[in-house]
Specification:
103 residues, mainly alpha, Cytochrome Bc1 Complex, Chain D, domain 2, globular
């Protein structure tokens, strides 16, 4: 019985990150992030940064700040006034950040 519970717990630990990553990729694409940052977050042009491979925690913090209007950077106006950014939940932001951070 104990072995079964341990195996079930381990399988959840392996599946949960995959599910979060898949949801993050989906949210990134459905919210239109790729229009500026590229389909996989690797596009950088002018003031628009490449996002792929950056630390997930930093990406999440910055995106939450844009959503909440607390980040003051040259891109803040564009990002903070974006309705899709404003509509993101913490869970969606965390998923997007984890997906981008894994690239």
């Amino acid at each position: 019985m104990k072995k079964g519970l341990v195996m079930a717990a381990l399988s959840l630990l392996l599946v949960a990150p995959a599910a979060v990553m898949a949801a993050g990729a989906d949210d990134y694409n459905t919210k239109g992030c790729g229009a500026c940052h590229g389909a996989d977050g690797t596009k950088a042009q002018g003031a628009i940064p490449k996002l792929a491979g950056k630390p997930a925690a930093a990406l999440a913090e910055k995106l939450k700040g844009y959503r909440d209007g607390t980040v003051k950077t040259p891109m803040a106006g564009l990002m903070s006034n974006n309705a899709k950014v404003k509509s993101l939940t913490d869970a969606e932001i965390d998923g997007i950040a984890q997906w981008l951070g894994s690239k």
